[in-house]
Amino acid sequence: MSFHLAQNPPKAVRGTLEGRQRRRQRPTLMALEERQLLSLFTVTKTTDDGSDGTLRWAVGQANAASESSTIEFSPLFNTPQTITLTQGRTSGLELTNQSWSETIQGPMVKVRVSGNDGNVNNVLSVLTGVTASISNLEITDGYDPDFVAYGGAGLFIGFSATATVTNCDFSNNVAQNAGGSILNLGTAALTGCTISNSQSPHGGGIANGSGGKLTMTNCTISGNLAMDSVGPNAGGGGGLYNGNVADLTNCIIERNSAAEKGGGVFNVLAKTVNMTACTISGNGTASDGDGGGFYSEGTLNLQGCTISNNSANRGAGAFSVAEGEYIGGVLNLTDCTVSGNTSSASGGGLYSGGISVSLVNCTVSGNEARSGGGGGLLSSHGTATLTSSTFSGNTAGQYGGGLYNYYCTATITNCTVFKNSAGPGYYGGGLYNDGYSATLVFCTFSQNSATYGGGVYNYHTGTVNLQNNIVAGNTASNQGSDAGPDVYATVSSLGGNLIGVVDSGSDGWQSSDFTTGTRTNPLNPRLATLGNYGGPTQTMALLPGSPAIGNGVPVGKILTDQRGQGRSGRSDIGAFQSGGFILTPVAGSSPQSAVVGKEFAHPLIVTVKANNPVEPVDGGVVLFVAPAAGASATLSAATVIIANGQAGATAIANATRGAYTVTATAAGAASARFALANSEAPSLVVTDYQDVVDAFDGLTSLREAIAYANSHPGPDTITFTPADFFGKSLRTIRLLAGPLVLTDPATTTIHGPRARRLTIKGDGRSRVFDVQAGSAALSGLTIAGGRADHGGGLRNDGGTLVLSGVIIRNNSARGFGGGLFNTGRARLTNVIIGGNHARVGGGIANLGKLALARVTIGHNFSPVARGLFSRRAATLLPR
Fold first, then answer.
1. Domain boundary residue among 551, 577, 603?
2. Which single residue of 315, 458, 600, 671 could bond 351 by disulfide (Cβ 3.0 to 4.6 Å)?
3. Domain ranges, residue 588
4. Percent of the chain residues topping a pLDDT of 70
C-alpha cells in the first residue's frame, strides 16, 4: 500500500493570523487504491548465453514475474541487430507466465531473432494459457523437424493462449507438421505483419489449428510453400491453413504455392474463413492440385476482395467443395473481383462442388479453364446464386466459357455475361447448363461464342428458365440452321426476352418475347460496349432506340438493375435499366422552309443527351419520320446512328406546298419535332393582283416577284400573265405592306400589260416604288395614290431608273416630288405625270441627273414648281 501526505506543512509565519492558522495544521495519512506496477526488463546484449541483459534472461525474468512484465531493448538496438539462438534445438524462447501478461516490445528498427539456420525448433512460443504481446521483431530461420508435434517454427501459440502480434516479420521458417512460420492453437491477432518464404505441409506461412481463432489486419503472406507430405490435407494452404475460424482484413496473400490444395489458403472441412478487402494473387498449386487462390471445404466469406492471377488444376481462383458427409459448404463473394486465374482443367476462376455458392456485385473476368469447362465459374451439384455480377472475357477449353452449371440449381439475376468463349467443338459460350435448372432473370448475354449455343446452351436433361433477358450478338461457329448462335435450348420462357437470332435450335418462346431476328437480319438490342456506367461492376448500357427499353414483363420482387438503379415504371429488358434520354433540335433545324423539290438549307439534327450523364448515347439510333401524304419531305435516312451526341438527316421538300412536322423518335426519349414548310417556287411572272406574300398559295404577287428579283443575282424581268392582266378587266394592285422596294444593282425590268390596264396604287399609305441604289426599268403600268415625305409615287434614291409608257398620277409628298423624287439617274420616255402634289416640285423634284423624252407634265400642284423642280439642268431628249 502506498501513502502520501495530504498537505505539506508550511514554514512558520510569526505574528500574523495566517501564521497562527498554518501552525494549527497537522499532517494526515491517506490510503491510495491498490496499484499494479509493471516489471520492466531491458535487453542490452545480442548474445544468447542467458546472462543478464540477454533476451533469454529477460524472457526468464518475465516468466517468473509476479506481475505483468515488459521486455524492452536498449539503444544498442536502434540500429539493426540479430540475436541468434545458440542453446540447442529445443532451446527456443518460451513465454510461460499464465498469471501475468508478458510483452516483448521491440525497437522501431526491428530486432531479428534467428533460429540459427534451423537449429531451433520454435524460435518463440506462447504456451498454454499465456497472454502475450509481441511487436517489432523479425523471427527467422526456425526449423521444427517433428512430423507429429505441432509446428510453428517461427511462433507457436498454444491452447488457450492469447497472442497479439504487431509489426513483426516472419521468414525462412520450416515446420514439418503445420505452420511454417506460425501455428496458432489459441487466440491470435496479427497486425501489420509479414509472413514470407516459409514451408510446412499444412500452412506454409501460417496454420490456424482446430481450436484457433485467428485475426489478421494489414498483413502480407507471401512466397510460402505447403510442401508435400503424408497425412490428411498434407500439401495444403501455401499461405494459410485454417482449421477453425480466421478473419482477415486488408491483407495480401500472394505468390504462395501448395503441393496439393490451396496455393493461397486451405480451409478445413466445416471451418470458416472471413476476408474483407484482401488481395489473393499469384498463388498456385502443383499441376494436379486444386484451388490456386483458395481451397475450401467449409465456409468462405469474401467481401471486397481481389482474387487474381492464381493457377491450379481446377478452381484457379477458388476451389470450394463438400467433402464426405458434410454438405454445408458455403462460398460467398460480395463486391469481389476474380480475374486472370488459370486452371489446367476446369473452373478457371471459381469451382464449386456440392456447396452453396453466392456472388453479389462481383466481376469474374479474364479467367481460363484450359482443358475443361467453366472458364469463369463451374458450379456442380449444389446451388449457385449469382446476382448483379459480370462475367467477361473468360475462356474454356471445353463447355461453358463463362459459366458451366452441372447438376446444380442456379439462379442468375441482373448479371452481364460478355465475350466469353467455349473451346472449339464445344458448346455454351456464355452458359452451358447440364442437369438441373438455371433460372435467368434480367440478364444480358452478348458477344459470347461457341460451336453451338454461343450465348446459352442447355443440354437436354436440364431446364433453362428465361425472363426479361437479352441474349443477342453471340455467335456459333457452326453454320447449321439449328446452331443457335444466341440460344440452343428448349427453354421455359416467362416472357420479355430479346433474342438476337432464333433458329430451329431453340423453342419454347412466348408472344411477349422478341424473337424475330434471323442470321441474315439479327435483332439488334443496341448495347453499349462493356463499361463503367455506374454501380460496382461494368455493364452494357442500353443506347437510345434500343428495343429493350420499356419492354420487360412485370417481375415483382426485382426492383433494381445490376447497378442498383431503380426499375421504375415498365422495366427494361436485360441487366441495365436506362435512365432515359432527351432529344433537342439544334438551332436552325426548326422552323425552316424550302421551295418544293429543293433541299432544306439546314439538315434536321437533334442533340441526344442521357438523363443520367454516365450513360452513353453514341451508337444508339434516332428514327426520323415525315408525313406519309400531303406536304412532306424525302429524308436522307430514316434511321440514323448517333455520333458525337447528335443524329441528323437532310430533307428535300416534296412537290406539295404546305406546313408539316417531321418527328425524331428514339426508345427511351420523348419525341423531338421539326416544323417544316414546302413553299412555292419563286417566280418572275406575276399571277396575283393581291398584295400578299404567301409562299404556299401557288400564286405570285408583284411584291413576291420583286423580292425574288432582289435576291437573285443578275438582271431579271418581271412580267404579268395574260390571263390575269390582259383581259377585259382593268387591274389594280393595292399596296398593303409598304412600298415596293428594288435593291438589285443589276437591272430589274417590270413589263406591265399597259399603263391603263394595270395600276399600282399606294392608297395613301406609302409611296409606290422605291429604288434604293439599284437599277430598275418600269413600263406599261400606272403609279398612283402614293404618299411619302419625298417622292409620293416613286423615289429613285441614288439608283438608276428608266420609265417607259408609265403614268404617274394623284400621288403626294410632304416635301419634294409629289410624283417622282430623283437623286440618282432617271430617264423618262412616253411618261404622263399629272395630278400630283408636293411642297416642292408637284410633278417631279430632281436633285440628280434627269433625261426626258415625250413626257407630259401637267395639272400638278405645288407652292414651288408645280410641274418640275430641278437643281440641275434636265436633259430634254429629241422625240
1. 577
2. 315
3. 581-679
4. 95
